[in-house]
Amino acid sequence: MTGLEIYKLLPKTNCKKCGFPTCLAFAIALAGKKVELDKCPDVDDSVRQVLGEATVLPVRAIRFGRPGRELEIGGETEMFRHGKRFNNATVLAVTLSDKLSADAQMDRLDRIAALRFDRLGEMLGVEAVAVVNDSGSAEAFAAACELVSKESDLAGVLLTNDPECARAGLDACKGAGKALRLCSGQALVVGAFSSDEDQDAVIFLEDGGLADVVSSATSLRRRAIEGKDRSAGFPIAVRVMDSPLKAAGAICKYASLLILDSDDPAELLPLVTLRLNIYTDPQKPVIVDPGVYEVGNPTPDSPVIVTTNFSLTYHSVRPEIESSKVPAWLLIVDTEGQSVLTAWAADKLNGKAIAKAITDSGIEERVKDRTMIIPGLVAIIKGETEDETGWRVEVGPREASALPKYLRNLPACPELVEGSG
After folding, report:
1. pLDDT tens for residues 313-364?
2. What are the residue boundaries of the structural domains of the chain, listed by start?
3. Interatomic CA distance for residues 2 and 98, integer angstroms
4. Mind spelling out the 3-state secondary structure of the chain?
5. Strand-strand pairing, 328-333 and 304-308
6. Of 186, 291, 357, 361, which one is least surrounded by beta carbons within 10 A?
7. Measured between alpha carbons, how far is 354 from 370 in angstroms, rounded to an integer?
C-alpha cells in the first residue's frame, strides 16, 4: 500500500501520539516499513485488520529494558546497510552467572558498568546484563536477577531453560521494567518470552562456529526480507563465549542482541566501534551542534578557533586544543556535517557561513579582540571572511595535530600566525 492509501484509513487527527508531526508523515513511514502500526493508539480494529499485514516490518521490533530507557531490537527492513539504513543497533549484553557469590556478582556488575567508551562524543558500551541460570536453582536465579534489577541500571536478559526458574527471575525483575527471557540448550529457539502476558519471539543462536553463526543469521535475514517469510522475521540473539572474532561476525551479520561472556574492555572497545560504524545512518552525517564551545577556561582575550560541525573534525580539533593548555573559544560553523575541505568545495564553509555562526553564537559579546583563526586548508577564504565579518582573520595550521605548537607560540611568535597553512 502507498502512503496516501494508508493515510485515508488513519484517524487524520494529527495528534502526534505516534511521534510524527502529522498522520500523513506517519502513513508514509508505515508505507516504507519504518514504523509499526501499533505506534498509533487511535486506529480502530477494522482498520488495524486491513493495515496489519500490509504494514508489518519484515523483522519484528521488540522492546525491553528499564522504563524510560527501553531498548529496541529488530525492526529491520534491509538486507544491506547501503540500501537505506539499519534501524536498531546490536544490543550488547555481558553475562552474570547465578553461581557466583553475592560479592563476586557485585564485582562483576561493577566491571560491566565500567564498560563505557567515548566515541565521537557519544558514551557507548554495554546496554544489558544477561543473568545465566548456571545453578539450576530458582532461588539463586531470582536472587541474581533481583541484584541486577536493584544495583544496575542496565536492561535484563534472562537465560534459563527451566520454566520455574524463569518465572522466579521475571518476578524478581518486575520493578526494573521488562526483562527478556531466552531459552538456551538448543541451536534455534523461537518463542522466547519477556513475561507471561506478553509473548515476544526471538531467534536464539547458541555459541557455535563463526561460519555457522554467519550462515544461519544471513539465511534468516534473507528469508525474512527477500522471501517475506514471517516465521524468520524475528530479532536474532547470539551468545559468544570465547571469540571476539565471532562476536564481530555476529555484529556484521544481523545479530540484534549479542551476549558476551567477556568483560575485558580491550575486547569490548573494538566491538563498540564496529557497531557504531555499521549502524551509523549512511545518509546522515555524524554532526555536533553549531555554536561556540569553551575549551579550558577561556577569557575575553583567548583565541577564537573556527572549524566545521562534522563530528570527526570537532573531535580531532578539540583534544589538540586541550593538549596545548591554551584556553580557547571553538566556533563551530554549520556545514551540514561536512569536513573542512568538503564543506569549502560545497560552498558551505565561506565568509557568509562564518559570519552567521558569529551572530548566532554571540561570540562577539564574549571576546575583546575581533580575531579568529581559520583552518589552513581553507586559507583562500581569509579575504572574504574578513569582508563579511569585519574580524581580522589569521590562517591556522593545515592539520589539527599542529595546533598545540601553533597555539603555544601565538604570544611569542605572532608572525607564525600569518604564515601558517
Report:
1. 999 999 999 999 999 999 999 999 999 999 999 999 999 999 999 999 999 9
2. 3-55, 61-279, 291-419
3. 50
4. CCHHHHHCCCCCCCCCCCCCCCHHHHHHHHHCCCCCHHHCCCCCHHHHHHHHHHHCCCCCEEEEECCCCCEEEECCCCCCHHHCCCCCCCEEEEEEECCCCHHHHHHHHHHHHCCEEEECCEEEECCEEEEECCCCCHHHHHHHHHHHHHHCCCEEEEECCCHHHHHHHHHHCHHHCECEEECCCCCCCCCCCCCCCCCCCCEEECCCCHHHHHHHHHHHHHHHHCCCCHHHCCCEEEEECCCHHHHHHHHHCCCCEEEECCCCHHHHHHHHHHHHHHHCCCCCCCECCCEEEEECCCCCCCCEEEEECEHHHHHHHHHHHHHHCCCEEEEEECCCCCCHHHHHHCCCCCHHHHHHHHHHHCHHHCCCCCEEEECHHHHHHHHHHHHHHCCEEEECCCCHHHHHHHHHCCCCCHHHHHHCC
5. parallel
6. 186
7. 13
* ∠ Cα 153 159 165 (to 5°): 100
Q: What is the pLDDT of residues 254-299, one digit of tens each?
A: 999 999 999 999 999 999 999 988 988 777 777 899 999 999 999 9
At 207 the pLDDT is 61
> Parallel, antiparallel, or unpaired: how do β-strands 91-97 and 71-74 relate?
unpaired
Largest CA distance in the chain: 78
What is the C-alpha separation between 351 and 348, in angstroms, rounded?
Answer: 9
CATH classification number, 3-55, choose in 3.30.470.20, 1.20.58.1000, 1.10.15.40, 3.40.1440.10? 1.10.15.40
| Alpha-carbon dihedral sign for residues 266, 152, 39, 222 | positive
Q: 115: closest CA among 152, 65, 68?
A: 152
Q: Does domain 61-279 have CATH number 3.30.1360.120?
A: no
Domains 61-279 and 291-419 share a fold: no
**Contact criterion met (CB below 8 Å) for 34 and 9:** no
Q: Which residues of 221-237 are buried (b: 16+ CB within 10 A; e: fewer)?
A: bebbbeeeeeebbbbbb
| 329 bridge partner residues | 294, 304
- Give the residue among 213, 192, 205, 148 at the shortest CA–CA distance from 174: 148
Architecture category of domain 291-419 in CATH: 3-Layer(aba) Sandwich (3.40)
Q: If pLDDT is split at 50, 70 and 90, which confidence band does 413 have? A: very low
